[in-house]
Write a structure and sequence with these properties.
The protein has about 375 residues and is α/β, with parallel strands linked by helices. The protein contains 11 helices and 15 strands.
């Protein structure tokens, strides 16, 4: 099989979907890997390293897309890449279709098979390909939130951990999943007072037992959320409904409850955001202010630490890439239910119920195509 690794073109996206060691594994399995020139440079991998691993270096994206049966990416194909999409081609990447109707329609029209990292689900409910980037994003959210609380960046001028005699900042985290638990651990480690809200009592019990003592767990109700907003210095949104648009937990009027110069970091922005006033930003222009509240909503947060992110992501994705390459997508999905749950679109039809429900479109069972 011919496997294509195009260079990511999203603004300030420096990750790459396959590292040289992954190329070596694919080549050893008998596959032809085409890597676009410079695709790995942002993560510290040279073209020479890919050549040594057995890849062919393609001069441009056109050559990669035109030749490949299986495209491996990090982020969803952007508008400039839609012209490359075609039937009988499989694309394996983060899509987040529910956040973008136009993106969804472009892939439906293409006839391509789209398998999304973010909806690959193990029987336990774990999302093995979303987890590593959620771990990174949760930790970055605290770093960025702490920075934008500085007066220099328009924040309240509050130090996250405080000092003896001065209270630490109050960090409110929405969602106790991978993003939320990682954010809570880092914020607590920096000395902040942390409140974490979630709907699962089972999850809250687990977090209460495993997180530091300066993390308070709260059942997520509208009353509890509004109460926490009144004293929050930093709010981190980490809620997730796999494959679906994130619920809008914080509404525009709720910002009036917050202290001027407070910061919201909406990690859920990939899925449309859990704050009504957030919209995607970039690492070049990461923040904006509404009603005196700073919003940080970069849609590819892990892209700012590409070396760490690329290694973490490819550790998780390579076993699935090998299955798709060795068996073809139909056989791989027949044999692996986790991978089958990643099928979002194929042959012009949606196969993920959460996406279909978001746009009120028809949904076909993945098994129909296998």
């Amino acid at each position: 099989m011919i496997i294509g690794v195009p260079k990511e073109i999203k603004t300030n996206e420096y990750r790459v979907s396959v590292v040289p060691s992954g190329v070596a594994s694919l080549v050893a399995a008998g596959h032809d890997v085409r890597v676009e020139a410079g695709a790995g440079l942002g993560s510290g991998f040279s073209d020479d390293q890919y050549l040594t691993a057995g890849a062919q270096i393609a001069s441009d994206a056109e050559a990669v897309w035109a030749a490949a049966d299986l495209i491996i990416k990090v982020k969803e194909p952007l508008r400039a890449e839609w012209r490359h999409l075609r039937a009988a081609q499989t694309i394996f990447t983060y899509f987040h279709f529910a956040a973008d109707r136009e993106l969804t329609q472009a892939h439906l029209d293409s006839g391509a098979t789209c398998i999304a990292y973010e909806t690959v689900t193990q029987p336990s409910g774990e999302l093995p390909l979303l987890t590593p980037m959620s771990e990174v994003a949760g930790r970055i959210a605290v770093q960025e939130g702490a920075k934008y609380l500085e007066k220099l960046y328009g924040g309240r001028g509050v130090l996250l951990g405080g000092v003896p005699g001065v209270a630490p900042a109050h960090v409110v985290i929405l969602g106790g999943g991978v993003v939320g638990s990682n954010a809570a651990r880092i914020a607590a480690g920096m000395g902040a007072r942390v409140s974490l809200l979630d709907l699962s009592l089972e999850r809250l019990r687990h977090l209460a037992q495993t997180l530091p003592a300066n993390v308070t767990t709260l059942y997520s109700t509208r009353h509890n959320l509004l109460d926490q907003l009144t004293t929050a210095d930093l709010v981190i949104g980490g809620v997730l409904i796999p494959g679906a648009a994130a619920p809008k937990l914080i509404q525009r009027d709720d910002l009036k409850l917050m202290q001027p110069g407070s910061v919201i970091v909406d990690v859920a922005v990939d899925q449309g955001g859990c704050v009504e006033t957030t919209h995607p930003t970039t690492h070049e222009n990461p923040v904006y202010s509404i009603d005196g509240i700073i919003h940080y909503a970069v849609a590819n947060m892990p892209g700012c630490v590409p070396r760490t992110s690329t290694l973490a992501l490819t550790n998780a994705t390579l076993p699935y890439v090998l299955q798709l390459a060795n068996k073809g997508w139909r056989q791989a999905l027949r044999e692996n239910s986790s991978l089958r749950s990643g099928l979002n679109i194929t042959e012009g039809q949606i196969t993920c119920p959460a996406i279909a429900d978001t746009f009120n479109l028809a949904c076909a069972a993945p098994e129909y195509f296998l």
